[in-house]
């Protein structure tokens, strides 16, 4: 589940909704009770008024009925038509009637066939009810706002340990071996979270230590035999009695050993989290490019393929030359490997390096997959070459743009700046 607002505002919203629900419940209950009590009070008042008039009327029939600005009274004799028609059908009790476009409460009592009726104008009652509703609405709004304000303040205090924990975690570096977090937090949910962070950080630090030890050991253990192999091949190549066939085999061993040394160096550099400061010894791209091209000319011995190198800029980059060499070697080697005839053109300009070939091309649906680790191409070959290229480009912020037509060739553009 994703939340679009932070924890403090969600807690505030919860308090506001709770205040709204409670205030509406109380207001509704208060309104119902008030209306019920008002109706009962009207009934009792009109009934007492009517009983008093009936008592006085029985003593003196000439006694006038009670009348005021809000009260009207009627005495209806059997068969008489001295009152509005709507009053003749009323039975004993309290009623609501409409007369002359106005609403009345009507209290009715029957004595010996005589109908005694008192009407009470409810305009003032309706006005008081509307005022009461308005005050209840104001109360609901005020209660909701108060709940939101209190919720916002309380939420700030409640989540302050979470905010502090987040700030502490943001500044953690596993290799620094920081002090445990759980010691500064209470034994509640935040404390449990801090202890879990401590456990995770401890496991992460152990993993980093093991990885660093492994990369250092592998680098040392591999460099030693590779250095021995390179030295042995140099000695063998210096032997004047070595025939052409054996010399070709020794040269192949020497190239493989050299490529392995560069690959080990590249993997070791990528395994380190921090980048080495190489600003004082920038890598000259044209020199590296020429070295890579010459190192791969042997792949063209049995192919009618021409390799063209064009240097239009003297670019220098503050990067590890080993990593740049690995990127260029992979791109050029792939272009040569998948080109059976035609040419491979390599061009260096101010923005980057272009490698264009007339090879088999790449299917459109596979262009975005070729940089995946261990992705298998149509020829059945696989490896870490292009995935390693991708990692190096991500390290330095470079970008690669590919344009390929299946059966016609591929253009790969290595830009020493991200694509816009």
Task: Indicate the topology.
Layout: H1 7-59, E1 71-76, H2 85-88, E2 93-99, E3 102-111, E4 114-121, H3 123-170, H4 189-237, H5 244-271, E5 283-284, H6 285-295, E6 305-311, E7 316-317, H7 321-337, E8 342-348, E9 352-357, H8 385-396, E10 399-405, E11 409-415
Parallel strand pairs: 6-8
Antiparallel strand pairs: 1-4, 2-3, 3-4, 5-7, 8-9, 9-11, 10-11
Helix pairs in contact: 1-3, 4-5, 5-7, 6-7, 7-8
Q: How would you characterize this protein structure?
A:
By secondary structure, this protein is of the alpha+beta class. It has three domains: 7-146, no CATH class; 186-274, Helix Hairpins (Orthogonal Bundle); 282-415, Histidine kinase-like ATPase, C-terminal domain (Heat Shock Protein 90, 2-Layer Sandwich). It has helices spanning 7-59, 85-88, 123-170, 189-237, 244-271, 285-295, 321-337, 385-396; strands spanning 71-76, 93-99, 102-111, 114-121, 283-284, 305-311, 316-317, 342-348, 352-357, 399-405, 409-415. The strands form three sheets. A five-stranded mixed β-sheet has the order 6-8-9-11-10, with helices on one face. α7 (321-337) crosses α8. The two termini are 33 Å apart.
